[in-house]
Backbone:
């Protein structure tokens, strides 16, 4: 099915598409947010229901007579923006199975999560040039919302004062967050080194990759922004839990129904906090993610991480800048040949290339020791020698005895 019905608008000052207050229509008919005329767009109630879901046959009936770009180019279509939003007929409709495909356009969870996180992080950290809470946003806030405490104030000298919002951190709090990220230690292979992204002196975080945003959004965001007021922090935690549940390796039908019912409420809670300019298309798309997950299954088979990783490997394999495609093909062929040899001639090779996420112990086999010490792993960082005091030595001794399988018999 396809959900139709476009109601986004351009904010007056920001002059960008906005999806603010477009999520109340997805709420139940008796929800209290529908009749609220103060927390959302001032003086407006929501009486409309969610947009209809069209079957593939209904969509084909609407687009079958539209021109294709390959035939007539980009031409204006009568009624565009009034009663429909079609601009062309996609060439994919020429495929015989396209009319029966329920999930024709897959939304990429990776980029949606990253852009959603960037908007939250930059706004809460008040990053200059990237925050959604700028001067134009405050002017639009005065037009669309009833929040006098956040409106710009005129000063005697003619300048405008932007009051501090409760959803943004102070400079000291932002530096504390950066300091916490700087000292953060993650398990081996869980994420990249986030400490390289934190600038404690300026209170800024830069250079975070898509997977860094993924880890921060689902695991670290509730801790990093714990200094925010509870009415602001709780919706952010709910957003974090939404993406964490959505990205689970196993999806249950009951869980999908639950997060599908919760995400409109979560977005409405965010609408009561952040200005209208905060809500671009990326804040609206999570509405449709649970439905697509019910059709396509877990997102691990549909998001862009493996493709982005493969493109990165291909770009790094270019040695001859004059023959980019040839370098990529030669490197790919060499990599596949090496992988083939590692699979079929494993006993004749020093190390295999198929042991991703496996610990390879290159040291000689040591005699068996106590189970607490006989664990697979490798050292992290430079080896250091440290002398323990008696209290530390006794504490380590007790820890080993408690966690050793061989000693449990005597403890009982």
Residues:
């Amino acid at each position: 099915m396809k959900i139709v019905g476009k109601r986004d608008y351009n904010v007056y000052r920001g002059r960008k598409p906005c999806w603010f207050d477009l999520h109340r229509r997805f709420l139940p008919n008796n929800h209290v947010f529908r009749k609220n005329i103060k927390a959302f767009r001032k003086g407006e109630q929501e009486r409309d229901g969610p947009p209809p879901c069209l079957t593939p046959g209904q969509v084909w009936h609407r687009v079958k007579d539209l021109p294709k770009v390959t035939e007539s180019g980009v031409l204006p279509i009568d009624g565009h923006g009034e009663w429909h939003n079609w601009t062309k007929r996609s060439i994919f409709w020429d495929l015989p199975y396209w009319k029966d495909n329920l999930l024709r356009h897959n939304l990429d969870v990776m980029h949606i999560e990253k852009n959603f996180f960037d908007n939250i992080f930059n706004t809460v950290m008040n990053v200059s040039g990237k925050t959604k809470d700028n001067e134009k946003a405050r002017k639009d806030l005065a037009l669309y919302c009833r929040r006098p405490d956040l409106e710009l104030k005129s000063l005697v000298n003619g300048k405008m004062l932007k009051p501090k919002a409760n959803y943004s951190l102070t400079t000291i709090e932002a530096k504390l967050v950066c300091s916490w990220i700087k000292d953060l230690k993650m398990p081996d292979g869980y994420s990249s080194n986030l400490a390289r992204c934190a600038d404690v002196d300026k209170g800024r975080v830069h250079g975070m990759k898509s997977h860094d945003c993924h880890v921060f959004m689902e695991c670290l965001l509730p801790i990093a922004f714990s200094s925010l007021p509870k009415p602001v922090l709780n919706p952010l935690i709910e957003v974090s839990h939404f993406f964490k549940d959505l990205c689970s390796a196993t999806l249950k039908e009951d869980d999908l129904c639950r997060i599908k019912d919760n995400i409109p409420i979560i977005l409405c809670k965010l609408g009561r906090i952040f200005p209208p300019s905060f809500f671009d298309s990326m804040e609206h798309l999570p509405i449709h993610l649970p439905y697509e997950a019910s059709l396509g299954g877990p997102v691990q088979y549909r998001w862009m991480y493996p493709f982005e990783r493969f493109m990165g490997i291909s770009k790094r394999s270019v040695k001859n800048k004059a023959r980019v495609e040839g370098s990529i093909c030669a490197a790919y062929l060499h990599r596949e040949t090496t992988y083939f040899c590692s699979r079929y001639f494993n006993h004749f090779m020093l190390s295999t290339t198929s042991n991703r996420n496996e610990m390879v112990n290159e040291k000689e086999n040591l005699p068996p020791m106590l189970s607490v010490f006989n664990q697979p792993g490798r050292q992290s960082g430079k080896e250091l020698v440290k002398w323990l005091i008696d209290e530390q030595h006794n504490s380590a001794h007790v820890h080993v005895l408690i966690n050793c399988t061989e000693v449990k018999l005597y403890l009982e």
The mean pLDDT is 86. Strands lie at 2-3, 9-10, 17-18, 53-54, 153-154, 160-161, 198-199, 204-205. The longest strand covers residues 2-3. Residues 317-347 form one domain.
